[in-house]
Amino acid sequence: MYWIDPDGQGVGDAPIYVYCDMAKGSTAIPHDSESAMDVGHCADPGCYSRTMNYNASSRQMSALAELSAECHQSIKYDCNFAPLELNTITYAWWNDRNGNAKTFWAGDNTDVHTCQCGLDGNCVDSSSKCNCDSAAPVQLTDDGVIADKEVLPVTRLNYGRTQLETSSGIHQLGRFECTGQVAVTGMPTSCEDLW
């Protein structure tokens, strides 16, 4: 664990306490929702909602993303007859750093509802973009890595359509993790560029 100050020493928000993996060259910001969490039973879209509380301010996380070559966050949803989307109704979404609703659960295409199996073309139901969307009454899993550093970190998770006694949903969200450093090209033309 180390103290860093992505938005500039003595500028902006206070330094943040992060986990650094020197072997991978990564910096990870923990939050209070990393363990597996049951969404319970409810019917409406997004009726279960959980806010992520990070060990860093939004400004510091945005600054870290801006300085890093790549940022990502892993996400997993174990479901049993609990679709993320069904019959064009969105039952689950996550909110990005600006509070915008997002329905992509893997990759970096922020405009398309999809999971890792949808990207790989191997979902249990070939007409679905996510395993959970098949609404099968069996235990399924959708997991992936969200990799659009412009919208990360995830600030809230929202799930629904788990009202049946046999329905279940358990989510797990990884730490906000960044690696590498953005390459700086050209000479600065102002103090802001130099910073």
Strand content: 25-35%
List the domain count as a whole number. 1
Show unreliable segments.
none
Tell me, what's the shape? Answer: elongated
CATH class: Mainly Beta
Structural class: mainly beta
Mean pLDDT: 91
Q: What is the straight-line distance between the termini?
A: 25 Å
Number of distinct beta strands: 14
The whole-angstrom Rg is 18 Å
Organism: Daphnia pulex
GO cellular component, one term: extracellular space
Protein name: Fibrillar collagen NC1 domain-containing protein
Short description:
The chain has 195 residues and is mainly beta.
What order do the helices and strands come in, and which of them pair?
Blueprint (H helix, E strand, L loop, with lengths): L1 E3 L11 E6 L4 E4 L7 E2 L9 E4 L6 H10 L2 E11 L4 E2 L2 E2 L2 E3 L5 E2 L13 H5 L18 E8 L9 E4 L8 E6 L2 E4 L11 H4 L1
List keywords for this structure.
single chain; 195 residues; mainly beta; Jelly Rolls; eight-stranded antiparallel β-sheet; 3 helices; Fibrillar collagen NC1 domain-containing protein
What does this protein structure show overall?
This protein has 195 residues and is mainly β. The strands form 3 sheets. Strands 1, 2, 3, 4, 6, 11, 13 and 14 form an 8-stranded antiparallel beta sheet that branches. The chain has a single domain (2-183), classed as Jelly Rolls, CATH 2.60.120. A hairpin with a 5-residue loop joins strand 9 (93-95) and strand 10 (101-102). It is elongated and about 60 Å long. The protein contains 3 helices and 14 strands.
